[in-house]
Amino acid sequence: MRARDIPLSAWIGMVGIAIVIIAVLFAPLLAPHGEREIVGDIWQPVGGDFLLGTDNLGRDLLSRLIYGARTTVSVALAATVLSFSLGMILSFTAAVVRGWTDQGLSRLNDLLMSIPTLIFALVVLAVLPQKMWILVLVMAVLDSTRVFRLGRAVATDIAVMDFVEAARVRGEGTVWIIFREILPNALSPLLAEFGLRFAFAVLFLSTLSFLGLGIQPPAADWGGMVKDNKDGIIFGVPAALIPGGAIAALAICVNLVVDWLLNRTTSLKGGRG
Q1: Segment 57-84, tens digit of pLDDT
Q2: What is the spatial distance between Cα 52 and Cα 123, in angstroms, rounded to a whole number?
Q3: Rounded to 10 degrees, what is the CA torsion of 180, 182, 184, 185?
Q4: What SS3 class is residue 38?
Q5: Hey, which of 23, 113, 136, 223 would disulfide with 69, CB 3.0 to 4.6 Å?
Q6: Could you tell me which residues come within 8 angstroms of residue 210 by beta carbon, excluding any fewer than 6 positions away?
Q7: What is the reported pTM?
Q8: Quick check: 56 and 239 in contact, CB under 8 A?
Q9: SS3 breakdown of the chain: % helix, strand, coil, rounded to 5?
């Protein structure tokens, strides 16, 4: 694959994701001020001494945005990796073992999916201590139900193929079949789904933070920044719109790259046929 074969939309998505990754890795070096440092009056306008203005407490909005990228992306990525690990292992196990194991895991998954995700998260997070690892675990468990549904559908189709049956005849165990036979052949749809689930995790985390049950202040995250500065919209202050735009831009960039990967995978399959 050559660079010129990559469409413009995918380039836009990759550039946007690269900018966010740089902000995540080098936040202390890129931010002009500290994450919690009060540097001016509240809601100072864009430009002048502060490129994006200040927030409701007089903190530099650009610095908060950069540090918020690190918090938002780190938590969303951790939750997505954990949800995929949990969802893939359980779904592949259900598809390979079948029988009562498949029925039990599938019905439990259906039960969890029948509960509205946001309401379930709000109830659980309101009861449990507000710790970062608890937030990541709750997000991962809720999102793993979607991963389980996709993983089981893909693994069920692969599990009946000849090379899997040959592995059973050779006497290979369940772990071998899952990781050596099914997983390599299910990577394409799962990688695309990983990108989508990461984008949804960013949006879900931002929603929880906006409702006061996500990342707790004074730590910066994009959803919390929208919540902190929402009252400024009444006075024409764009402080809440800037982190909201960052959330939307990241979600769009991820989706652009995922769409390109899906189209590329489909075209490759069509060429082989």
Answers
A1: 999 999 999 999 999 999 999 999 999 9
A2: 35
A3: 150
A4: strand
A5: 23
A6: 223, 224, 226, 227
A7: 0.86
A8: yes
A9: 75, 0, 20
